[in-house]
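Field reference: sequence -> structure
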Amino acid sequence: MTTFHLIGNAHLDPVWLWDWREGLNEGITTCRAVLDLMEEFPELTFSRGEAAIYEHIERYDPKTFRRILRRVQEGRWEVVGGTYVQPDTNLPATELLLRHFEEGLSYFERALGQRPTVAWAPDSFGHSAGWPEIYKAAGMKSFVFSRPSQAQRPLPKPAFWWEGRSGARVLAYRIPVGWYGCERDEMKRRLDGYLAEAHTWGLENVAVFYGLGNHGGGPSRRHLLDIRAWAAAHPDAPLIHSSLHRFFAALRQEIGRRSPRFLPVHRGELNFCLRGCYASVARFKFAYRKTESKLISADRTSGIIRAATGAAASDSSPAWKAVLFNSFHDILPGSSIERAYDDQLAWLGTAWHDSQQRELQALNALAARIDTSVNRPQGDEPAGVPILVWNPHPVPYRGHVELEASLDYRPIGRYQDRVSELPVRILGSSRKPLPFQRVATESKAFANLAWRQRAVARLEIPPLGWTVVEMGYEEGFRPPRIASAVAAPKRGVITNGLYTIHARKGARGIGITHKAGPLLASPGLMAVTVEDCYGSWGGMNEEPDSLDLSNVLHSWKISDVRTVEAGPERAMLWVRLRGGHSRLDLCMSLSRERDAVDVAARVLWDQQASRLKLVMPGGDRAEFEVPGGTVKRGPCGEVPGGRWVRAHGRHGSFGFASDALYCFDMKEDALRVTVTRASRYASDAPSPANAEPWRPTVDAGELRFRFLLTRDVRNLPRLAAELEQPPVTLLCASHSGALARRGSLASLSPASLKLLALTSSADGKAWILRLQETSGRAVTPHCTWLGQRLRLSPLAPYAIGAWRLTSSRRGWTSTSLLGGLDLVPPRARRRAHRLISS
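Structure field:
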């Protein structure tokens, strides 16, 4: 016999066809309604996740919050999920998703006395291959989802084991009939459907989900009366008001009684569906990605410097909550209304500024202890400017850094109208002159005055460390000369000895060759506009032409080419492409000894019912970085991806990384990357270009992003990390200091370890180091921490691990954390009991 576990729930999108104020306040209304029904129907149970909603209720309606606490203690109100909100499950960074659980589980423990072990993601649009590793690190033992459906991703049973590359397993359940909610009049039909299908699954325990949803709601009075009537009419079909934790406990008992092979094992990703969401509302996605990256980097910088200097702690919680909230599965995927995005972009802006301010606070505290003194000037000439350059990565940085400073408080009069003759010097941390190349300043104001200068120099910066350079004016100074292969031999061509870029007006592609041969097959890097009349989610029913967007409306052509930099350190080619009513400007750079092509892109987009793709011929198979790990794919339509892609084809391999883009496809031996798509806000229906022209088109206007291409696919993850989180430059005061002009606070090895987090612990008494192994080999991490070598506990292939670092009189010690999170201890449950008793 099959026991049907009734799971009452109320899906609530805090932002979607409404703004965040309406969404969160609806959380109060929904929970009040469910609590009132619980008094009328003593059998009713209810499952509710998302810490952000509980937090809002606790703040604005404490009476309702106390009522929830009482039902939690009775066992009728279940806390599930463990996340701050239900995030998108394909696009955020691994660390961001771990922070969802760290923030959510800590709140649930502290405020509700609960630590759920069932992950709840019923409405997100597919799930990356690395989630089993993330769930294991978060202590999640079970997982419920609904997308992709059986038609999109066939599975033998609704219940199965989902296994990651590390061997981590989670007991998963996909909703097999209907969706996670139901209509007001649907309850009897829903139960009939489960009864008719249950025998095909071979399960003794089946979860049945019901309740009004999307804008809150939950079980209704009619639902509950219809359940009573159906149960009376079907006495041989056990029906219980249950919870997800009780359902999975019963399912595990069932597994224990049956064959170990009773449930199938799924390995790899659970994708794809609603593929338009991988590219919708690029202007928000770009801002989100940069804010997420800045927050993670600032947290790392602040954490290690605070450990080294004892600097005052700064509260990062508001910034983290802002980015966590904005990863919600109807915000980040681009499926909400325009007015909501105005609010969310403003909210992201506060997180960006807060992160930048915390980074500045930490770097100023470090700079105050470093010898930043400059050479004493002669007579009344200006002194040099000390610049602290910080490397936020646990491995050395070797590459070019742009430096800009005012060389005096007023323009240097003797060089008026001959600025290029101004003698500029840059000294390294050893106070010896460095080779450099002067480049244009960001400002074109008063170009005839010798005052502010910008230069690019190749630096070596220790891991999680710094170097001090001095930039100044010195009469008679001559910078050192170096042998360099960087050149611009003719119009439209630049080279650095490793790569050569050639662009010609009127051509469709930009040629890029490597010393070993073409990096991209002919005709090179291209841009095309393809037809895409679908709404925010793409094809709602997985229409074939929504998965393979290949009807080319415009093959963009090069309309102008200029060499804007040519020197011993860097050459830059500016290339303008035009297609339709839009244009794309690419500043393509080649630097001395750098094994990559760097590109700063600026697109002015003015299209309808279409999308812009970059096309890179030469690869029809690829490995994608995704949350929690990587995944290999062949041509399969529009797919989500993360920070980098290793593409493989008949003529070799190349790597692509960006600081903003998420959507890819492979077709006709080419990797294609979506930059933006001209859909309509919160639209679920196809919309031709000429339909309702008064409705705003998403992303019209200017968008900026950066990307790189490389033959060095082995080092692509490091190049991608440096692209997102480049060295930070800080002009500071000149003074003596106890710390040398060059130094490191921490380092990590071997290179296969990915640093996810380095931050202060929740209790403020220690530091948390979180890592993931990426090579597929078991390793013992080695960490140099403030001059002391720490040997950390071994890490399994692809696994996520975390350590608590504490200081004592005898030095630093590391303690491995259970799982990968820094959570509040169980004694925090006392607070919930005190609230209930009050």
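Note: The domain at 3-273 is CATH 3.20.110.10 (7-stranded beta/alpha barrel).
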